[in-house]
Structures are given as C-alpha cells and as structure tokens.
Amino acid sequence: MENDTIVFHGTLQQLLEKVEFGEMIPKLQASHAPMCKFFTAYYVISGIRHVVPLVHGPTGCPLYMSDFVRTRECCEIRGVPLEPTACTALDESHVIYGGEGKLLEAVKEAYAKYHPDLIVILSCCCSGIIGDDVESIAREAEKLVGCRVLALRSEGFGGDFRSGYEDAFKLIMELMEPPTTTMKRTINILGARWGPSPTEFNWDMDELERLLALIGIQINAIIAGGCTVEQIRHAREVELNASWCYDWGQKLGDLMQERFGIPYSRTGQPYGPEATKEWLLGVATPLGMEQEALAVIEKEMNEVEPDVAYLREALSGKTAIIEISEFPGPIRALSLARMTSEFGAHPVVINVHPYTIKERMPSIRFLLETGVNPEIILTKGLFRLGSFRSSKETEEELEAIVREYDNPIFFGNSGRFPPCPVVNLTLMNPVFQPQYGFRGIRNIAALVRQALENKDLPRSRLFRGMLYGTRTR
Amino acid sequence: MEHGHDNEPAGSPHHENCTDPYLRCAFNGAAQTALGVSGSALLAHSPQGCEYLVNNAFASQECDYMETVTLCTKLCVDEIVHGGEEMLARTIWEARDLPISVLFVISACGPEIVGDDIGAVCETLQPEVKFRLVPIQSPGFRGSQYDGIDIALDTILKRLVKKTSEKISDSVCLVAPHANANPTWTADLVWVKQALSRIGIQVVATLTHRTPLSEIENAASAETSLLLSHDAGQHAAEYLRAAHGVEPICRGIPLPIGMTNTQRWLTALGERFDAQKNVEEMIGDGERMVTATCRRKWPMARFLYRTPAAIVADATIGIPLVRFVTEEMEMTPELVALYTANRPVRDLLEGELNDLGLSPKVVYGTDVYKTRMSLLEVKPRVIFGSTIERHTSEGLPVAYVVEVVRMMRQFRMINREYFGYTGILNLFECVQNEWIMGWRSREKRYEAKW
C-alpha cells in the first residue's frame, strides 16, 4: 500500500523491533498522555475492600480519582458503598518544612475515623520531591493503629502508567501470608483494577466466573477487583493464578510464581472459541480438571454453534480492519485480530499507539510467541498535536485505508465512519456485553449481524459533524 | 459549629491531617480560569496525570475540542532531577503554529518545587511565537481550586488588562462566574447577562467564560464589577477597584436564587444604575411567571412543609439556598455544610441565618467525613447536595437527596440556571423528580398475567 499518510506498515513483530530500538516513539510532547503512575496505583489499591488510600499530597490528585473511580464508577454503577479517599492536603508550608509529621498524624486520624482493614499511603509529586519517607512513616504508624499500613511510592513523574499498576500489585504481595493449607480447585484472578468490583468490565469477569463455576473451580480472590484483605492474606493457598487479561495479571502472576511457586496460567484474552478454550484449559488442566473443562466447553460450544457458523460465513474472505480507539490498549485489538483470523478474515490492526506497545512489551512478546502477528498500519494522524486534529486526521486516513482493501469490515466503535460495515465493539454499550467467553461469541455475532445487515442504512451526519467538524473533502 | 482560620485558603482544612475533600487543587482552578479565554490554548507544565485535571476544567468551561487545544509537557524523573525548562521551551516551540491569541502555561507541583522558572521561559520564547505567552504559577499545593481561580485571575488581570482612564457608562465586568457548583453554571451566567441587558447595563468583560482577549484587555473600562461567586473572585474584584477604579457592586447580598434573593439582587442593581422602575417590572414579571407556572404545574415541594433539610454545597449555591429552602419551599434547614470557610462566606451565611431566625448546625470547610458525621447527628429528611451525599447518607432515614451540585446520576444536555425566575422552576423540578423517584414502587405486589 503506497500512501504518504502511512508511517508504518508491517507486522507486529516488525513494529515491536522498531519500538525496541526507540523508533516510532512520538517526539511531540503533547501527543498521547495516558494516566500517571499515581492514578494507576490508586486504581489498584482502591480495588481492595475497606482500604483507606491515604494520599500524601494536595487535594487535586486524590479528588479526581475519588470522583471518577469511587463515586461514579463504584458507588453509582457497581453498587458498592462509599468508602473514603483520604488526603493529607499538603500546602506550601509542608512543601518547605516537610510533611512527615502530618502524615503520621493522618494515619492515626484515618484509622480513628474509618476503622479500615488496611491503610495504603500513596505518595504523589509533592511528597516525592520533598523526600518525605513514606515507608518509614508507614512502619512507624503501623505500631500505632490496629491494621496494616503500607506505603507506595507513586509520584506521577516517577514512572509510566504501567509502573503504577505493577508497583501496586507488588505491594499487595506484602499482605499475602504463608499458606497453612491448600485450597483445592481454587484460583486467584489477577490483574483486576478500578474500584471494589471486579475489573473494568463486570460482564467479562462474570462470564469467566460462570464458566469456572460450571467446571467446578472456585475463586479465592479477584486481585484487586473488590477483594478483601482476608482473601489477599490467603492468596498463597490457591493452586493456581490466572488473569482476566494476560497483560495486567502478568507481572503479579510471574512474581507469585517466582516467589511462592504458585503456577500462573499464561493465556490471552478469551475472545472467540479458540482463545476461550485455551483460557479455560489453561486453568483447568493444571488443576487436574481437564475432562470437566472439556465437557463444559463441548456443551457451551454446542449452544453457540449457530453463532460460530454465522461468524465463519460472515467473515470468511473479508479484511477485518481493527481499531480500538476507546481504550487504546493494543491487547484487545490483538485479541480481536486473532478471533477474526479464526473466523477466516484477514486482520489488519490500525493505529495502536507505539507508546502502548512499549509499555506492554512482555505481553506483546508473549502474544507473538503464541502466533499472533497481524498486519499493522500506523498513520501520521496518530502523532498529531491536539486531540481534535489527531482524531480528524486518523478518521480521514482510516477511510482512505479501508478503500484500499477488498471486502473490508471495520471492528472498532461507532465513532468512526469508514465506507464499510462497522462492528461497534464499544465497551460503553452494555447491550452487547460480555465480549469474553461463549456469551461473548453470541454478542459479537449479533454485532457483526447488525453491521452487515444494516450496512446501507445512513450514518449520522450529526455525530460525524460533532466528532470531525464539517467535511472538507 | 466549627471555626477555621480567617485568612486560611478557601476550603483548606488546615486544622486536620486527614481529609476527604470536596474541592480540587489550585492547579485545577487555574486551568478552569484559563480555559475560559477563547482563542487560547493551555499548556500544563506537569507530569501527564495533571492533564486529567485540565480535562476536567475543559469540560467545566464547556470548551469545544475543535477550537481549544490542551498540551502537556509530561514531565518524568529526568525533568524533576535536572529541571524541565528545556522541555517546556521545546513544547512551546512545537505549538508555535497554533492559531491562537494566548497560550497559558500553568505549572504544577513538581516543576514549582524543583524551581522551573516558567516566567523566564515564556519571556525568552515570546519573541519567537505569534501569540501571547502567559505563565500562571498555580501548583496544587497553593490551595484549593478556588485559590487557583484567584491566582489565575490575578495573573490574567495584571498581565493582560490595559490601563485606561475612560469608563463606559452603565457597564460591568463579570467576575468568576465559573466558581459555581451548579454543574451547568453557564446558564446562570446567561441569565445574569440577560438581566443586565434588560436593565440597560453593558457587559464589558466576563472573567472568564468564552472571553476573547480583547474583552480582557478592556476590562478596566468597566464602571463596575459584579462578583458571581461567593467562593472565589473577591481578590480580582478588589484588584479591579484598587488598580482601575472599577466599583464592586451587589456586595454582601446572596446571589439571586429564589424569589427574595433575586428581588434583592435585582433591586441593588436597579438602585446602582438608576433603573428602579425597569427592575420593578422585571421582578413583577418574573414573580408572576413563577406563580402562574406553579399554579399550572403544582410543585410537590409544597408538601415538604417544615421538613428538616440539609444543604451541603459550595457557598455560591449553598448560601442563597438557605433562604430559598426556608422561605419558598418552607422546609427547615437544620444543617448547612459549605465547602469553603473564608470570612466573607461566614459573614454572609451568619447574616442570612440571623435574618431568617434559623440556628442550624453549620460546618465550614466541610469534607466527606464531616458531612457524614453531621448527617448522622442532625438526621435531616431532605438533603440538597451532590451525588456524594446520596451515598454518604446511606443507612440514614433520608427520604430525598436533591442533587443540585456535582451531580452524577443526572445528565443535562440543556444548561439550566438556578439564578433568577426560571432558576426557581428548575430547582422545583429537581425536587419534584426526586420526590417522584422516592414514591416509585420498588417491587410489584403480584405479577401481571400477560
């Protein structure tokens, strides 16, 4: 494909090599700003029940997270009670004279006010730069209150967004006590985030729990998606760790395997029949429950056979142009690439940000090892300054790319207007959730059917104008 | 009743070590103010996380992403250790072709602590870019979002307003309309502008909402300033008076929420601009419209006569609500918890309570914990507050939580004012919808046959 708007066209393997050598990373400072380390650490820690995340900093950092994660996501949508987000509210005098004394008092105050099962001190830019020793304060404070007090260095400037997740998961390991028994046929699910309820997308986790229950496998803790401190304490008593998403669970899974000898099931996201089978067998086989799993898989496959047959027929010979712009992580895009390939389509993944490839290097390598190596296209608009310009340009580039392929079908969301059927995989519409597992197959078949059968219906000029302004060409 | 320090930053709970705040930091307030200037862009000199506070400010000012660009220097360890001035200069240089009149550079905690001189960087780069560079030093640790609004207004006024001895007669400069917890506060601003227009008063500048640079430059030509917040903007009004002779008006009067407050506020305007007759007509028309509408729609708020109520809000909405809830809706405020704690807020609230003969529990500079404890103590049956109070009051015998500030359960495509006469109806509507939801059957007594 010859096009002056394309800056990379090759395989995932080739893109990974370029990223490893420092190429393809945007030079524009303003391009692509994911969350900071503090935010992601907060995500994980707030996923433990009855925890006080005690933010050692000014009020801006915790409040954004408490509004967004706590009140909106957890209380309003996920039916969990309002739990505290405490803060030391550092001001100029603390920046000059230090805030350790205030922090120690804050821990005592937090314990007296909220009676939590755990307090986690999260440092942010201010306390990190002035050098407040949060770890020592945590050790000191723990002697004065009736619960564990841990500290996490989570300064926003201190690492990329991934490091916040990983450091928080690592910290949680400190709560895991030596096993006194083994919980048979029981696993932990690792890598969950976003408040005291399982994972970002409840439906996907619900589907995994349903399938595990059918096989006869128990879950001790979903770490950290609404688990209790008690469940974390017993986390080493399980037979196996698994992840709802290989990428997010990978670090904690590897560490628990290395340090505690608990095996970790390495499988990708369960999109489509093959990946779902792999996920279930990856958990069941080490537990000696392969036969039970195969029986469940057979039964479930029978139920979704019409959907699988439809997807094969609908996608065979097509080019699946895949873009996940809503949550621009590459892992879901790659999982979809694998699924569409399984149904006979040729997947082309468009505009996964190289920055996100860099941050997910171990997981991308794993996916390559398992044979996931789709065609990738990156365009100039991806690196453009300003979200509107970037969004408008990538839309125009997407439309141009789609025209180059025979029989294309777009897997992304309805915010795009390519001249081909659009499969709306948005995670903002609960109607077609989950996307994981066998129920996911059914939903994806329904989405593909909607896309193909209604491909000639007019698209919204209103939404297009809202997103991209008046059409210029 | 709790007492804070008179000169502490607004809403800053200094006396506590551990707080669960309602208010964001100064960086957020400064961003909210800067993004109210049209034809501008904002560059956050900060790590990437602070960009999310900018996004929040962007939404609050209802910016259009086709028009307003926000940038971030995305500082990492290197810039904290070695300084981030070079990175800032590079980012300004990258933005040099943006079609804007002003680029606001706002520094966050990290670069301020390590001593990045954003003023010097802007001064050095100024000759190389076509737009004005305005550095605003407003790191989060400088205080609450209201302090940030004051810091940004101070910088904007000192750097951008032109000196003039000529005044436009019957004119006003509107100050801090955005320091208002009505989630669609821009409707309050629209109402104010319409009311002023009807009285014959010209708005010279709005500090800030969709305000072009030229308006800000001319702010000193306003005869008067009108503060549209009880939480922020007082320093700006005072500066305009001291530096440019712009007379602050309608001081010491609650903002126009409810019949009596609106009447008082409009009357003060009429007296200042010698437009009493015009104002009397406006009041008459407005009150007749509200009364006639209520006669046709029958607001259920009338059934809540002397029901114990709590008001948990910013001072801008919270203080005027005290009279509205007591007088128009005939409930009994038994708890007033305000996010801020400064002296003018205390004076204004205490004046209102004395005038009304009320003695509720009052909490200044409240946080989520204090609110919960106060609700436990007072046990109101109705709360005027935010989504947070809906969850904070769980387990208490609260019948209705009327979400008037920072609401998450409701979505408004059309902005609705609380100020003025339509504002009264909007607030009645909030009460009515909550009342209806409160009556909705949770379960059916038996199943239908079909």
Uncertain ranges of chain A = none
CATH class of the largest domain in chain A: Alpha Beta
CATH level 1 class label of the largest domain in chain B: Alpha Beta
- State the end-to-end distance of chain B: 58 Å
Which residues of chain B form runs of ≥5 with pLDDT under 50?
1-13
Percent strand of chain B equals 15-25%
What's the arrangement of secondary structure elements?
The complex is a heterodimer of chains A (473) and B (450).
Chain A: E1 6-11, H1 12-20, H2 37-45, E2 51-56, H3 60-77, E3 86-87, H4 92-97, H5 100-114, E4 118-123, H6 125-130, H7 134-142, E5 148-152, H8 161-172, E6 186-190, H9 202-215, E7 218-223, H10 229-233, E8 240-243, H11 246-260, H12 272-284, H13 290-315, E9 319-322, H14 330-342, E10 346-350, H15 354-359, H16 361-369, E11 375-379, H17 387-404, E12 408-412, E13 422-424, H18 437-453, H19 461-468
Parallel strand pairs in A: 2-3, 2-4, 4-5, 6-7, 6-8, 9-10, 9-12, 10-11, 12-13
Antiparallel strand pairs in A: 1-11
Helix pairs in contact in A: 2-3, 2-8, 5-7, 8-11, 9-13, 9-18, 12-13, 12-14, 12-18, 13-18
Chain B: H1 26-34, E1 40-45, H2 51-60, E2 70-72, H3 77-82, H4 85-94, E3 102-107, H5 109-114, H6 118-125, E4 132-137, H7 145-160, E5 168-175, H8 186-199, E6 202-207, H9 213-217, E7 222-227, H10 234-244, E8 247-249, H11 259-272, H12 276-297, E9 308-313, H13 315-328, E10 332-338, H14 343-356, E11 361-363, H15 368-378, E12 382-385, H16 387-392, E13 400-403, H17 420-439
Helix pairs in contact in B: 1-2, 1-7, 4-6, 7-10, 11-12, 12-17, 13-14
